Amino acid sequence: MAPVAARDHRARSSSHSLLPILSLLCFVSIFLVLSLFRRASPTTPSLSTTLQLSRNSGTPSGASCDYSAGSWIYDPNYEFGRYDSSCKEIFKGWNCIAGNKSNARDVAKWRWKPQFCNLSPFNPIRFMESHRDFNIGFIGDSLNRNMFVSLFCTLKRVSGEVKKWRPVGADRGYTFLKYNLTIAYHRTNLLARYGRWSTNTGSGDLESLGYKEGFRVDVDVPDGTWAEAPHFHDVLIFNTGHWWWAPSKFDPIKSPMLFFEKGHPVIPPISPDIGLDLVLKHMTKYVNKEAKLGSIKFFRTQSPRHFEGGDWDQGGSCPRSSPLLPDQVEELFAIENNGTNVETRLVNQHLHMALKGSDFHMLDVTHLSEFRADAHPSTTGGKKHDDCMHWCVPGLTDTWNDILIALLNDIETKRSRS
């Protein structure tokens, strides 16, 4: 029996000596698999995909939630029921389901989960019940219309008694008769009034500097499409930005932006980014002066574009079918890279500077939206080029409205307690 026991002892010793090596090999294999997964661009969402996009800073106890920090969670079984592609207000180019975009139904299956709090599902009936006799105005470029459409379709699904009615200057508007709740969209590209300018319109100072034509932008005069809106709306949601970095429209040589203040040209002429600062300064002052007593004012941060391989007129496209990973976002949007979509964070720098210390509430949707390269109409947008700027509806702008309503509820609750 002694030789058998000796063999068993040697076998056990040999087995124990191999354990550290086997453990090391197992660890290395797992590390390599995870590294390959992280570097790969996601194409098809897994059954329990979570993209952790949170920032390092936390929200102090008792403070308002930072809805912009969190994670995108994919739920393959989620059935979007707020409205469907039959909502007639959806602009054809944004109706990705009707346009047969390959991932159109997946777009709305990604749910935003804030890191430090809950984002309650938007209850449209409860919202309309608590906002009877209210007027809500979206003021800005077509990205604010994108958001307006999402809200309209959500409310229309549960309250069909709707009358088309446009407040002064509005591009479109509707009143939900049961609740006397009006929502409207006022289109304005720059917030300030602007129009064509040429030497025959008269401005000796500009002519003497060699300017023959361009666009006159009156930094202290609101665009007529929304000048009356602060008198009417109880809630105002502003945006601007995309048109300020648009060389196809405001060519710095052939058709530059020429800024005027108090009816006179700003001499020496200034660049568009300085012009944006002046417009934001004057427009926020105008709104504060003209707004209804007790109105709530939001400014939405910049909506990111996702052109890859060039800008919209250079063959740029957005073929992604799943959200980007964090390192891909930085590659696409980091200011130091000065890429095609750099305007996103540049515009936000100007917004934060202009609104600091004001009573405007920031509706921060930029960072969470930077990951959603999958949510644009892309080739189904009905344009000659890929639409990597606007968003599929249903889609991301529904999340924007979820955050808007959550912030609005937070503000109103605090007011009621004070």
Question: How would you describe what is shown here?
Answer:
Residues 42-64 are annotated as: Disordered. Its main location: membrane. This protein is an alpha/beta fold. Helices cover 34% and strands 17% of the residues. The model is unreliable at 1-22, 24-44 and 53-63 (pLDDT under 50). The protein has a seven-stranded mixed β-sheet with strand order 5-6-7-4-10-13-14, with helices on both faces. It is built from eleven helices and 14 strands.
Q: What is this entry, summarized?
A:
It is built from eleven helices and 14 strands. It has a single domain (75-417), classed as SGNH hydrolase (Rossmann fold, 3-Layer(aba) Sandwich), CATH 3.40.50.1110.
Sequence-ordered SSE layout with sheet pairings:
Blueprint: H1 2-39, E1 50-52, E2 70-74, H2 104-107, E3 110-114, H3 124-130, E4 135-140, H4 142-158, E5 162-164, E6 172-176, E7 181-187, E8 192-198, H5 204-208, E9 213-222, H6 229-232, E10 235-238, E11 257-261, E12 264-265, H7 272-290, E13 296-300, H8 326-333, H9 343-355, E14 361-363, H10 366-370, H11 396-417
Parallel strand pairs: 4-7, 4-10, 9-11, 10-13, 13-14
Antiparallel strand pairs: 1-2, 2-3, 5-6, 6-7, 8-9, 11-12
Domain Trichome birefringence-like C-terminal: 119-406
Family: Belongs to the PC-esterase family. TBL subfamily.
Membrane topology: Single-pass membrane protein
